[in-house]
Specification:
alpha+beta, 1 helix, about 35% strand, about 70 residues
């Protein structure tokens, strides 16, 4: 898997029967992907689930041994 990059913005546009997503990173890189409407619908559902779930605290240290 590639390195994680911080997202700067997302652009979306129709491209024929597909939807083109452009993901721009803070370092200036851009990744463009084509997705079907069904894939975008699944992405929206997954993002809504994440946004509606409780925020977990960031863990800076491993949990204590039992």
């Amino acid at each position: 898997m590639s390195a994680t990059h911080k997202l700067a913005r997302i652009l979306a546009a129709r491209s024929g029967a597909h939807i083109e997503l452009a993901l721009a990173t803070e370092s200036g890189q851009t990744l463009k992907v084509l997705a079907t409407p069904d894939q975008i619908d699944m992405l929206v559902d997954e993002l809504e689930d994440i946004l509606n779930s409780p925020v977990e605290p960031e863990v800076s240290e491993p949990p204590p041994a039992a």
